[in-house]
Amino acid sequence: MEVFSGRPRTPERHPPPGRPRERRASLLDVRSAAGQVFLLQVVIVALLVVATVVGMILQAARDALQQGRRASVIAAQSFASAPGTAEALRSRDPSAVLQPRAEAARKRSGMDFVIVMSTTGIRYTYPYPGEIGKRFVGTIGPAVRGRTVVEQAGGPPLPAGRGTDVQAVVPVTDSRGTVVGLVSAGLTVRNVAALWLPQLPIILGSGVAALALATAGTTLVSRRLRRQTHGLSPVELAGLYEHHDAVLHAVREGVLIIGDDGRLLLANDEAARLLGLPKDAKGRPVAELGLPEPVMRLLSSPEAVTDEVYRVGNRLLAVNKRPAYPRAGRGGSVVTLRDTTELAAVSGRAEVARERLDLLYEAGVRIGTTLDVERTAQELAEVAAPQFADLVTVDLLDAVLRGWEPTAEGWCQLRRAAIGGERRMTPVYPLGEVITFSARSPQMRALQEGRGVLEADLRRARGWREQDPERSRTALESGLRSLVTVPLRARNVALGVVNFYRTAGSLAFEPEDLAFAEELAVRAAVAIDNARRFTREHAMAVTLQRSLLPRGQPDQDALEVAWRYLPAEAGVGGDWFDVIPLTGARVALVMGDVVGRGLHAAATMGRLRTAVHNFAVLDLPVDEVLGNLDDLVVRMDDEERAGDAEGDHEGVGVTGATCLYAVYDPVVGCCTMARAGHPEPVVVRPDGTVTCAGVPASAPLGLGGYPFETTELSLPEGSQLVLYTDGLVENRAEDIDVGLERLRRALDGSANRTPDETCQAVIDALKPSPSADDIALLTARTRTFPPSRVAEWEVPPDPALVPSVRARCRETLRKWGLEEAGFATELIVSELVTNAIRYRSPPVRVRLLHGRCLICEVSDGSGTSPRLRRAATTDEGGRGLFLVAQFAQRWGTRYTPRGKVIWAEQVLHDGTSAVPRLAPVDFLLDHLDDSGS
To answer: Do residues 883 and 869 make contact, with C-beta atoms less than 8 angstroms apart?
Structure first.
């Protein structure tokens, strides 16, 4: 009898079953049917492999246990029955006799242990001697009674390692059958479990082969499905079917599919409604559906049809027919039906709406192409006629045409600004005439009510006819029949009215036409108002700029001057010029250009022109004038930026202004010039040679800190100096060198022309059309003082020689025929020379110039300027400059590199000096009386 015990010796440990490697990428998309089948096959193969391995492991373990039981029983019984075992147990030291035998038997039998013990379970043998003498772990009760026990048990460590053991315990009997001891033999389970490992590669290989076959089959199925479903998944196929079915029955067009045998395969809801098909029409022959003969014949024939119209009941159906499967070669056809009963009326309205939209688009493109009020009004008339009306007239307030702000007071009088359409149809009022509309006229009603007025039949329009009965009768006789008048309003301000007329040969205006006319007028009014505002700003800027430019030529002897100024069509810029008489018969020529347009540029130009005047009056050198002007522009630019930061005004900087400053001295025939970023002047010599002046280029004004180089040019008498701004020679489409070459060609042959003729010739040759920039042109022909009109001599530094200076001055004036100016001139020269000698600043020179005025100049080497003051009664001096100021028209001081020049001018009238404000004696007495008071 066998007794089994389930108590394990140690915790059972099995090697983990082999896990299939995770696949890095799916062979097929699991969202597709083929992918799902493939995934199912992979799962099945994996389950089969796992089940097989598990079953094999369990079966191997079971077989190992059975084999272990048998081997354990045989080994234990063999050792127990071995000769000498019973006698050894009764010996005095059983372990000494049985331990070698047991170990030898264990090794021969392949057991993991052979243990001999007493009937009380005390071990006499053990693979590890240290365990001898200890109690046996296992069941020994049945063995003591003479029975064999086979069980699974655990005990002390064994050579085979720790694990679950199968052990058998048998009794050892003597010759009388008495149990004198026990023998236990056993094996560990892990040693026998290796029996199933050789079969594992076969199982795994079979699984891999099955998986490969599944993959190949699934791939083939997937390719076939993809070809047949065009790569769509089942969900997509179902959704596609649902969408097609929904669209098929929701579309407002009938759809029929007819098979090659003439049977109706499909008809959507709209087709059933249009044809009145019965509910059981699907699958029936077309001939049995009760359709009209033409429709039935059309559906039964295989011919293709495009937009053929058939009557079915009270409907007109547009029919299209095409083969159902043109690529597959199968028969059948697809027929579409569209109800066109209301198409004619809808098409007519749609065509009108389309034409109106096209006209509005054309109006947006064509109206407002220029900033001219009258041209914009004419564009409105040309756009609306003849597409919308046969005749169009535009009447604007005079204030609008002038660029002023319109007011309601101006409604009583409007001026006809534009006429469009057939001119042979006589309008009520001609172009340019001022019209006074009556209170009951449609135009005045439109202005007062702020909306359009429709007069469908002018013959019944009493207010229109009462406006001017005679002209109204003429207009009706010429064919005018219908009128729409709409106010032109922008920014809630009326600018005028536009009148749309139709003749007897056209349809009368309807309310829909009134709405369109109002939309057209709104768009045109914005363009007209923009043109009006530009006209106002342009006029203001032109007025301001022209007021700041020279209005006439100043009196001077050095140059014969002519100029031209042409403002740009797009807006006034900052171009400016000036001719400034200086002391010593010299003249300064200025040409400048300020960046920008409009009022700001014009105002900035005025500030710069005033500054140049002030700097020129100080008789500063040419480069210092530009330097001071540069500092001024920098300060102005900083002020503008500060204004921007505070949000006070728009503020546009003036950085980039250019300027050319030249000073011509007719006495020596020399011109000193410098330019700050300005185009170089051109010189026309007396022999006709045209050359550039050769003035070095310097940085524009406003950059700050850059020096300005000057050049001196000797100009023979009769030379022409041409100054201009970049608008004359620059063109976006051409290089500036091309413009300069054109200027040179225009100046060829100018030697015999007057400056005015030269200006006109240059403008005629170079003026662009249209003008995108201002053009300023200045031409100056040089003159020189004849030697006979110049007297100059040096004065030794001796006060005793002053009378001789007066005498020489008197002699010079006598030669010039200016005896009457002798007393004042002698007094002036005497005072100036005495002052120069007194302060010891040689060399002292005197120069007299006889031109439009008599100029007296005394130069010395001192840099100190005298100061005018009123002397006290007790003062011995201090009255010289006071006398000079009284007898001279103007006087002053200018500085030279070698000192200073004190000059005084006396105006000559008919060759004589002007009468002094006080007689000399009376003046002196009066001066002395004032001093003593």
So the answer is: no
